[in-house]
């Protein structure tokens, strides 16, 4: 195709990547995380939903694709927490946490029916074969166990090339039903106004946090970013207020609740039959 357009099949990296999340174990980390959630509407919307659901968790919680375990602080101290992640977490996503169990392949290092809750945040879009992943999720949950899942919707292509999907409520329901989950609930995080604020802020954040090697160019970008900072702050305020309204068809992402039931052989994906 003419016009100087890039064939994106060959993209292997990003021009700008948001800073990685950190554990919320110290007072300083908790403060920085709270500030980030205010300006990072995606992160803030996820935290708001998980802050309602995770304190209800009991028994054993399996956090799959746990990264820096940023939501562990929302759990009761009586919960038995197990965080697992792929061995590619560090080279592909920049995460390596001390008490995480790392695994290779598609099988999780977890016993059948051993988890009461499975937490999976912003991970499914990075899974090349979602059906096999959800089958593992179903295997590891006890009968009647709960899954708490979040996925992005209005989000840029990120962690290139390891970002494969954007899911709709219809698609999520179909995948989860095929995997044997029941009582599926899908909730939008934010609405069109939230998305509009989020997209405009995304233009300014690479200026405030430039990732270029040239020092002069980096400080020049920061100068422009500081000029735009009042606008970013205003957009953050509007975006956070907008999330108090009902979720819309255009949204930041989805939060999903479901229970482990019995898979219906007639609904299994072809690769799982």
Short descriptors:
Rossmann fold, 273 residues, 7 strands, globular
Mean of all residue-level pLDDT scores? 92
Number of discrete helical segments? 7
List the domain count as a whole number. Answer: 2
CATH architectural category of the largest domain: 3-Layer(aba) Sandwich
Structural class: alpha/beta
Largest sheet: 7 strands, mixed
SSE order, one letter for each helix or strand: HHEEHEEHEHEHHE
CATH class of the largest domain: Alpha Beta
- Write out the CATH superfamily name of the largest domain: Vaccinia Virus protein VP39
Proportion of residues in extended strands:
15-25%
Low-pLDDT sequence parts: none
Percentage of residues in helical conformation: 25-40%
Dominant shape: globular
Record the strand order, biggest sheet. 3-2-1-4-5-7-6
Description:
The chain has 273 residues and is an alpha/beta fold. It folds into two domains: 173 residues, Rossmann fold (3-Layer(aba) Sandwich), CATH 3.40.50; 50 residues, no CATH class. Helix content is 36%, strand content 19%. It has a seven-stranded mixed beta sheet with strand order 3-2-1-4-5-7-6, with helices on both faces. Helix 4 packs across helix 5 and helix 6 packs antiparallel against helix 7. It is globular, with a radius of gyration of 19 Å. The termini are far apart. The model has no long low-confidence stretch (mean pLDDT 92).
